Amino acid sequence: MSFCTHTLRIRPALLFNAGHCPLPTRPLRTSFPVLPRHKAAASPRYFFFFGKSKEDSGTPKNQVFGSARSSQEFYGPMSAAHLPFITVWTSSLSPNSQKVSRVVRELVNDKVGEEEGGVAFIEVEYDAPDVQAEDLGLTYGINAVPTMLTFDWRWQMPLNDARVTNEKDLMDVEFLREYIRQQARQGALERALGRKR
InterPro entries of this UniProt entry (predicted)? Predict the structure, then answer.
């Protein structure tokens, strides 16, 4: 009795043409059984490696950061804010600048501007040694304190139309309140336009 053997290394067409045993009518069994197919689980809307941006997490919340005494303490919070970044530049020699900073901080903490889209706030100590050494004030044209200036967090660029140096305006709480709301509205509008593009 003769037996026909087939190996996976020999092409079936060659065996057939050479007059060997006919090809089997059933597919050869491999050493790797086919496992039953299970129903795939529903895919989550957000994957952990993508994360969920603050812009997609509902209404943004105001953020208040501590005082910046160096460029690192300035740019780090700005990059993390994802919101219009309001700064008040102060000096230890200017009590009024410190008062303006305190009032703006309290307003932002009290959620002024959240309904309009949210803002972030930081005080920048203009006469801090590292700020002076790194010419941070010179970079953004700060030549008086107090100065209030809002930055676009995406490009880390100042919005020059949002620069306020008039001390009378800066000492007006209602002016500060409306300024915060205006920056929040502008930031919300830019985020909405960015999502549509």
Answer: Thioredoxin-like_sf
CATH class of 70-196: alpha beta
Contact (CB, 8 A) for 67 and 131: no
As a whole number of angstroms, the distance between CA 27 and CA 22 comes to 13
pTM of the model: 0.70
Give the C-alpha distances (Å, rounded to integers) separating 74 from 49, 67, 131, 151, 194: 27, 8, 9, 11, 25
Enclosing H/E stretch for 164: strand 157-164
Question: CA–CA distance from 53 to each of 158, 191, 193, 196 (Å)?
Answer: 23, 12, 16, 16
Q: What does the DSSP 8-state code read for residue 157?
A: E
Q: What is the Cα Rg of the chain in Å?
A: 33
- Residues in a beta bridge with 86: 121, 150
pLDDT tens profile 144-184: 999 999 999 888 899 989 999 999 999 999 999 999 999 99
